[in-house]
Amino acid sequence: MEVYPPKYHLITFGCQMNKNDSERMATLLKNLGFASTDSKEEADLILINTCSVRQSAEDRVFGQIHLFKPLKRANSKLIIGITGCLPGRDRDQAIKKKMGIVDLYFPTDQMSQLPRWIAELRPELVNSVDLVEDYMKLVPDRKTTRQAFVSIQTGCNKFCTYCVVPFSRGLEKNRPLKDILDEIKGLADHGCVEVTLLGQTVNSYRAPDAELFSQNNPYTDHFAKLLWEVNQVKEISRLHFTAPHPLHMTDDIIDAMTLPAHLNFIHLPVQSGDDEVLRRMNRRYTSAQFMEVIKRLKAKIPNLAIGTDIIVGFCGETEEQFQKTVQLFKDADIDISYTAKYSDRSGTAAHRAFADDVSNEEKKRRWEVIQQLMEVSVVKKNQRFVGEVVSVLVERHEAPRITDEMLMMPEKIQETIKNQPGLCYGNSREMKLTRFPGTKELVGQIVNIKITRADMWILEGELV
Ligand code: SAH
Ligand code: SF4
Ligand code: F3S
């Protein structure tokens, strides 16, 4: 059977950075003559880009691999590859041994070797191989054109004691300013209006080619300088970044966040509100220092919406220490928290030095306490938008739907429903999901919406 073009099926878990890496991998495979397929059955190559941040994320990878066993039995030539954060942290390949049927196993930064490995396994699938040295030089093959994630940094130097990322992704490496700006200008030329800069401690960015910053750039801090440069790309009217580290929130950066393109939102992970826990996490700040950053942010940007990450049930966390996190959540007036139950990761300093001694039930209880707190606070905060006008980049459209119950209705009514414009969805500049009646032609546009109703997860309104 002729297989041309050979096909790959790529599954991505984890954060935006992984999604962005998958887009690079798609480019690499496309250059190699591969076509993407949604069907695992017809794939010559199945790749999983893994996340390792918590055990539950790794369990999902094992779940997938299990499903591939019959495929491999049916087609012994099928190549199964595992990349991303799991192979990176699995130095002695102890986790790989449990997987069985895996042919390729490599951390993200070795992605550029993929053509060579495929050629070794299935020479007939590969015609010519143009090796790239650095995978960050690959231009991501993006699905959407209006919004894009742009990685400006890989790896991490912080070594928070609970975290696998410095092991999975290596030490912090910053992309050249030139590559970042070329990528963003290229995106702008293709209709992009919103850019999210990505890095594990994105605001510690240091340009290796700092001489290329504009002469009239007013800032000293490299990340603030970068924000200024992106603000000069006139098509980009919505700019934000994730995830900054509280330690590096300089006045320069906060000032650059008041430039016109910057969205009215920051995701600033705190992890805990207790100083002893923060110290054992090696977060390098106290709760008072975190609150001081919040104060400086709010002084410059009064209506800034704030998101954070919290870990509950870290090793040795007492009820009293947990209550400090609850208090900090209230003091900082957080809009949204991505709360995680601590998950012990082999290879990390916490795994070696501390006991994972908060029971799972207790972690769950603390998780729910934060969740409830957030639900109450976010409803209150969202209510404030009622009567206000927000600016929304429309991301998707939902056609009016005739449900089973509606089939009982007279045809005339069904007809009227079908002729409704449907619903548009997108995020406001505060990163609040907003819904309003509108036609599909609005997708990709930036529109003003007057908010009429608000609940926990959504603002509802109408076009003005
Ligand atoms: N670089 C970012 C976050 C990277 S990981 C930062 O410094 O904040 C994303 C989130 O996963 C973290 O913010 C943390 O809340 C969570 N996380 C990381 N390791 C974890 C672990 N071992 N158990 C539970 N949550 C974890
Ligand atoms: Fe992990 Fe800490 Fe680095 Fe974030 S800053 S990626 S939590 S080590
Ligand atoms: Fe992202 Fe998961 Fe790796 S959160 S950096 S894909 S461990």
Could you name the key traits of this structure?
464 residues; alpha/beta; pyruvate-formate lyase- activating enzyme; OB fold (Dihydrolipoamide Acetyltransferase, E2P); five-stranded parallel β-sheet; five-stranded mixed beta barrel; 15 helices; globular; binds S-adenosyl-L-homocysteine; binds iron/sulfur cluster; binds FE3-S4 cluster
Structure commentary:
- This protein has 464 residues and is an alpha/beta fold.
- It is 34% helix and 20% strand.
- It has 15 helices and 18 strands.
- Strands 2-1-3-4-5 form a 5-stranded parallel β-sheet, sandwiched between helices. Strands 14-15-16-18-17 form a 5-stranded mixed beta barrel. A 3-stranded parallel β-sheet has the order 6-9-10.
- Strand 15 (423-428) and strand 16 (433-437) form a beta hairpin.
- Helix 12 (319-332) runs parallel beside helix 14.
- The chain binds S-adenosyl-L-homocysteine (SAH), iron/sulfur cluster and FE3-S4 cluster.
- The site of FE3-S4 cluster (F3S) has 13 residues, from helix 1 and helix 6.
